[in-house]
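Each letter names a residue; the fold follows as tokens. Both lines appear below:
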Amino acid sequence: MNKILLCTNPKMNLSVVETEEYARKLKKFIDDNLEDWMNIDIYIIPDHLALHSISKIIKGSRLELSAQNCFYEDKGAYTGEVSPLVLSELGCRYVLLGHPERLTFGKEDTEMINKKVKAVLRNNMVPVLLVIEKEKKEKMSQTVKALLDDLLPYLKDVPKEDVSKAVIIYEPAWAIGTGSAAPIDHTHEVLAGLRDAIDREYGKGVGQEQLFQYGGGVTLDSAREIMCLDNINGIGMGRAGLNLDFFTQAVKIAIELQKKQKDR
């Protein structure tokens, strides 16, 4: 049964109190609807200021915690940074890295993100890496190469056995704001190309084991289509996930799909 991953990233749109209320309602929904046998992971990516209180709210739940970013050292004189060691101690399972907003506003570069990937792995958490398809290219081989040119430097010197521990969110930037996701056959072809390329880079089977999510604007109909693909593991939501009802409806679709797989 394929693992399904769903996450909601409110970015800097909710206050601590609003995030806590969101987390309480989402936790209750998860606890009431997710059964033990289901291979579904749901994680929330709150603002750093809300991490401590959210960790207490969701303790003992299937709802997982993620940070929006971290630094690449565990301790030291790094004023304003966030320690991956502390995130791990708080109970974070995931850490989001390489988000385009961090590249733009935080001026992060490839070398820094690579260090952060290693720091997250060192602290037994899961790096969640974004790769952005900035524009549609004429040939699929060009698209895959452009995405790999961004992804592989993030994974520089990461041991082969740790590569597939990462989650990769594929985001077609050109589709965001259009009111719909990228065409489903395009997404399938991109992920097939990326999986094959990772296999060639790190060894047979590594790319096939890699966990991929789709990022970008989705509707419930497109979310269903995306989660039905045989080479994707779910969806990462930003603005859409701010609507709790929308996000829980997407979780319901994931639950429905897993029940269908079980009954086959």
Observations:
- The chain has one domain: 4-263.
